[in-house]
Specification:
By secondary structure, this protein is of the alpha+beta class. Helix content is 29%, strand content 20%. Helix 1 runs antiparallel to helix 3. The chain is globular and about 60 Å long.
């Protein structure tokens, strides 16, 4: 922990020089914040305060993510033409989920799950999730929502009158782009860890049926397990469902939510400019 703080100090000038000149003032501020985050994390570690450690670790990761987004530059890969009609998020976005128990804030990652994150942000902007209940609730496992009122179990496109289908989309470290509609079993990589793993409480996952990998439409779930119980690459969800973001604030609310609760309103706070309606 201390070594991380030391590296931030000793290599600060070199780190700043890696950012585009017009972003360097923002990068300076983010590194200032990261130094504070590291200090808080170190204090929590020394005090053996697990809750404070997890909170400060999430804060540090959020700050690092903000810095990384300044460095990514142009979107790093081409999305297959097969999915040209689907919305895509070419970057990150911050979403506020106002629930019946309080507010959650989540960051969704279009760099590693552009179609999944794009479908989600598109539906948030349409007000699709406003007023929907958590239709599936399993203690210490998942809270799921996004099933609309009526006979459909997903989003019906108003133009085509067809239900939108979003493919299973999972990015694996070392690959140039995500795999689509293939589980880790299909790929023969049984213990791989996705770039976006289900390894922390508050992971956002995209739901699909047991019969198909490409019929996810609008339903998503909040993962409730902790990393100690479900290590990345060794649980039953990584490689079978797409993670597309993480709750970064409101964990006390997440602890209180049950199947009797629901989403009051979902709002895009930042990153709406990264959404494209189609290819």
């Amino acid at each position: 922990m201390r070594r991380g703080q030391s590296l931030l100090t000793s290599r600060r000038a070199r780190l700043i020089s890696n950012f585009p000149s017009e972003q360097q003032a923002t990068a300076e501020s983010l590194l200032d914040q990261l130094e504070l985050d590291w200090r808080t994390l170190a204090e929590a570690t020394e005090a053996r305060d697990r809750d404070a450690f997890l909170t400060s670790r999430r804060a540090a990761l959020s700050t690092i993510g903000s810095a990384e987004s300044l460095l990514v530059g142009p979107f790093p890969f081409e999305i297959p033409e097969t999915f040209v009609a689907l919305p895509r998020l070419l970057g990150r976005a911050t979403i506020e989920l106002a629930t019946t128990k309080g507010t959650l804030t989540a960051v969704v990652d279009g760099y590693n799950a552009p179609l999944t994150a794009g479908a989600f942000v598109d539906l948030v902007q349409r007000g699709f999730y406003d007023g929907l209940p958590f239709g599936r609730a399993e203690d210490f496992y998942v809270l799921q929502t996004g099933d609309p009122i009526g006979p459909a179990d997903g989003y019906i496109d108003p133009t085509s009158q067809q239900q939108r289908r979003v493919p299973l989309e999972i990015m694996v470290p070392g690959e140039d782009q995500p795999f689509y509609n293939q589980t880790f079993e299909d790929l023969g990589i049984f213990k791989a860890t996705p770039v976006l793993p289900f390894a922390t409480k508050g992971t956002l996952g995209w739901a699909h049926s047991d019969e198909a990998l490409d019929d996810g439409s609008s339903q998503f779930f909040l993962f409730l397990f902790t990393a100690e119980l479900t290590p990345a690459g060794l649980n039953l969800i990584d490689g079978r469902y797409a993670a597309f973001g993480y709750v970064v604030d409101g964990f006390e609310v997440l602890e209180e939510l049950t199947g009797s609760d629901g989403i009051v309103k979902a709002t895009v706070l930042e990153g709406a400019e990264n959404l494209r309606p189609h290819g």
